[in-house]
Specification:
By secondary structure, the chain is of the alpha+beta class. The protein folds into two domains: 2-44 and 251-377, no CATH class; 61-229, no CATH class. It has twelve helices and ten strands. The protein has a six-stranded mixed beta barrel with strand order 2-3-8-5-7-6. The two termini are 26 Å apart.
Amino acid sequence: MIWIALKMLVNDRSKYFGLIIGITFATLLIGQQTSIFVGALSQTVSTVKDIGRGDIWVSRKGVETIEFSDPLKEGDLLRVRGVEGVKWAVPVYMGAGIIRTKTGTMRQTMIIGLDDETLLGAPGRMIWGAPEDLRGRDAIIVDTVARKELFGGSVTAGDTLEVNRRRVQVVGLARSSPQFSGMSQVFVRRSVAAQLAAEPNYAASWFLVDVKPGENVQAVAARINATTGLHARPRDQLSREVIEWFQKNSGITEVLGLAIVLGLVVGTVIVGQTFYMFAIENMRYFAAMKAIGLGNGKLFLMLMAQAGFVAAIGCGLGLGLTAAFFVTFAGDDSPLRGMGIPWEVAVLTTVVVVGMTMVSAVVSARKVINAEPGLVFRA
């Protein structure tokens, strides 16, 4: 019976291809928009992931995102280092700066100032150059976005930039993760960053803290909070809070969520209507099967087999097109850089689309199950 059901479906070419196209489109839209949503949220904490150091990140109270911070004092650093369980603590500066390109245009960029002594937090994925080169006078490392925006796509050692009217020399090119803000990133020593950003003293945005072996990270963070009055958070907790803040305040959930829901609704309507028309147009055949003794359970199984068959083909094509989209449009110079379709999204999309198709088949099955066997003998 399953074979007969599939032959019925495939032989009705218009309905067969209509179902596959509808499911493919729904899968593409849901998978693509969900992947972009996940990728965009991950960009909000890309700096935390790129630095990859510090069990605990410390800021002033009230700081909710990485980009916007309240400068910390040098004395705060000494107090943090004195907390029980702290292995080391180093300052990091993060702030926006204005860079003048070779063509004279102005661009805003994120300046990351690393601890002068340790250079902790330096980019780990260097295309050329090395973090140690930052120890040179007025040295700067740029990322691939800065290469495109500031140098037109090509940068070599010794090229210069003007940051807040101060000349710096490029000593390296890094591959950093894309930022939610879209800004490029440059890396310098913190003493240089303070001068470039016209900050007083050696301003610090965050303290990166590592705990001693055997110490509980959450417990040490609580001690820092109680002892210093600052806001210490384990790195994972900070990432979650930043993502939640952007979900709440940026509107990204509403915009991309609407696109995801639209894909689901459009897919359900197209597939449901096509399945219903298929059932109606083949009602005489289903009635004939009932007339020769085929039960409702087997008729229902036939419709489920048809739904599962087109769902598997359409979902496979949709996920393939989604993957091809990111391969084509998520290159190094694209705003979608670094994005792809996570396996969790692929699985979730498959479950949703297959479920949508099965529900459409169930609705159509009611018409088939209620068909009178005598229908086959009517003119």
